[in-house]
Amino acid sequence: MASLSALRVSQSGRRGLLLRGAFRVHPNRTCRSGTPVRQQKQQQHALELPSEQAIAVPRRTRFLSDAVPFSDFLTDSFGRQHNYLRISLTEKCNLRCQYCMPEEGVQLTPKSELLSTQEIITLARLFVKEGVDKIRLTGGEPLIRPDVVDIIAQLHKLEGLKTISVTTNGINLARLLPRLKEAGLDAINISLDTLIPAKFEFIVRRKGFHKVMEGIHKALDLGYNPVKVNCVIMRGLNEDELLDFVSLTEKHPLDVRFIEYMPFDGNKWNFKKMVSYKEMLDIIKQKWPDLKKLPCEEASSTAKAYKVPDFQGQVGFITSMSEHFCGSCNRLRITADGNLKVCLFGNSEVSLRDHLRCNASEEELIQIIGTAVGRKKKQHAGMFNISQMKNRPMILIGG
């Protein structure tokens, strides 16, 4: 059974570990006092868009809560409050994961059409003013963007933003993490789909397994707790490693999250390749029948969390396909080219970049965002319909 202290990296292809030593508890960053979300103007009006089509922004009923009133513009017609924003920093990646990018690659957007650093911060500041308190930086691979440390440092200054996190493939993590932490990075998700170096190269079509393991080690060594490890499970490829991944949580504060294989343009999704949450759970319970389900920390949590008693870490299941969590979705996404997506699996987008570059006022941008959020559907189309829909490849969405 694999464990972080037992893995070895060698040219002969044996499993490797670069995690070592004692691990310190991550000290919580000093809380920054956020200002109350400002009250929105009661009067909302039609906005002239470049297409000359006036879109009336309907006034939506506030989500019933005793908390500080949340922005009407980030609350959809089903009462879901969107306080979590994912921003893609780049379309580029130094890996070619089979479930994310077509083997032949993708047509990248010209640099001039991608969001600049200042545009990213401008949009982030706007969303935080409206109630967003968590921002996750994605890609492509966000850590290949040269100014990623500066972006995190600027986000860190935004009053009301509680959490800055990043999802990374881990290749550059060990080298950059000390600077990222100093800049204000709070949490890390690292993608790792196998513990076998040769299989790693097959899945991602590149070398680098030892660098990812080194990145996980560095995150633990610097006190991140938990360190989340994202593992996309595909039948016939890595479902035989489920127990090995669970074993990693015995001695270390890892949160291994098993993700159901999802359909995106170019990843050749097939229902037969998908291993459902319940099937994964049954396999794990055969080894650990006392696996305990944990209560959800937040209503909007995407993962069903479990823990083997006396293990330091835990495991989770992200069940986007078999048991969707649309009813509690609190996430919005901005692609690297500046488009707002209100649903990962939806193909409806609106360009915030174009409005920024046309010198739209803050109030105009807020109303454009509010219109998009207001049109968000109750739930996505379901796995079979999604697989037939035209959508961006995952690499161009940002997760």
Word description of this protein:
The protein is built from 11 helices and 14 strands. It is α/β, with parallel strands linked by helices. Helix 2 links the parallel strand 4 and strand 5.
Determine the N-to-C terminus distance: 31 Å
Report on the biggest sheet.
12 strands, mixed
Low-confidence stretches: 8-67, 383-388
Strand content: 15-25%
- Helix proportion: 10-25%
Q: Compute the CA-based radius of gyration.
A: 21 Å
The oligomeric state is: single chain
The shape, in one word, is globular
Query: What average pLDDT do the residues reach?
Result: 80
Reading the helices and strands in chain order gives EEEHEHEHEHHEHEHEEEEEEHHHH
Strand order of the largest sheet: 9-10-11-8-7-6-5-4-3-12-13-14
User: Which class do the helix and strand fractions yield?
Assistant: alpha/beta
Q: Count every helix, treating DSSP H or I runs of 4 or more residues as helices.
A: 11
Strand tally, please?
A: 14
GO biological process, one term: Mo-molybdopterin cofactor biosynthetic process
Enzyme class: lyase
Pfam family, one: Radical_SAM
GO molecular function: 4 iron, 4 sulfur cluster binding; cyclic pyranopterin monophosphate synthase activity; GTP 3',8'-cyclase activity; GTP binding; metal ion binding; S-adenosyl-L-methionine binding
